[in-house]
């Protein structure tokens, strides 16, 4: 049996149960695209300081930073235009059934993720990229509700190992191996 998708119109700001940002909350929305645009410009400007030795590589080391910086600017401008054109229309998934935009911020989750990032920063040199990334992945996924800690660590190890090998072998970017140095030599 085929059912038709729900085509109910998006709620309007006139509805009583719709969260409509006002004042500082309204202007904080535009802060995100502004920060994205500034970050993109900073990346593009700083990329010009990268020395390029033509005989060393076929692809300039400026290529990826230029792509990221340009992408941030494009996304920032696009998002700013979207916010300005449709200021109170729910876009980008806010009207999905699993998102409650009126719910308060869960500061405990944010604090756990912040602790995880701090631990990552402390462990990346001595423990290495793979172990530090697996730990931060396990902490972040646990903070977001997963209770399978062993699975979180294993998934983190697999993903971090894949990223490490991608950067180390394919891109030639050395990430800290830490205590696993002898394995990756």
Short description:
The chain is mostly helical.
Q: List the secondary-structure elements in sequence, H or E.
A: HHHHH
Give the strand tally: 0
Please tell me the overall pLDDT. 81
Tell me the domain tally.
2
Share of residues in helices: 55-70%
Shape: flat
What is the overall number of helices? 5
Portion in strands? under 5%
Structural class: mainly alpha
**Main β-sheet description:** none
Through-space gap between termini: 58 Å
Radius of gyration: 22 Å
Report on the structure:
This protein has 185 residues and is mainly alpha-helical. It has 2 domains: 23-85; 107-180, no CATH class. 56% of the residues lie in helices and 0% in strands. The protein contains 5 helices and no strands. It has helices at residues 23-47, 63-85, 107-123, 129-143, 149-171. Helix 3 packs antiparallel against helix 4 (129-143) and helix 4 packs across helix 5 (149-171). It starts with 22 loop residues before the first helix and ends in a 14-residue tail after the last helix.
């Amino acid at each position: 049996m085929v059912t038709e998708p729900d085509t109910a119109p998006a709620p309007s700001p006139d509805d009583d149960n719709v969260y409509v940002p006002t004042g500082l909350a309204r202007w904080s929305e535009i802060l995100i695209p502004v920060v994205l645009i500034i970050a993109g410009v900073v990346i593009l400007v700083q990329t010009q300081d990268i020395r390029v030795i033509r005989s060393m590589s076929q692809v300039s080391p400026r290529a990826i930073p230029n792509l990221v910086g340009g992408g941030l600017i494009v996304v920032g401008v696009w998002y700013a235009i979207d916010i300005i054109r449709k200021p109170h229309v729910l876009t980008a998934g806010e009207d999905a059934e699993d998102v409650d935009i009126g719910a308060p911020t869960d500061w405990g989750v944010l604090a756990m993720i912040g602790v995880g990032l701090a631990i990552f920063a402390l462990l990346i040199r001595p423990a290495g990229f793979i172990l530090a990334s697996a730990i931060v992945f396990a902490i972040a996924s646990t903070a977001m509700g997963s209770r399978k800690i062993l699975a979180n660590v294993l998934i983190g190890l697999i993903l971090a190992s894949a990223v490490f090998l991608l950067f180390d072998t394919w891109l030639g970017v050395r990430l800290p191996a830490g205590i696993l140095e002898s394995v990756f030599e």
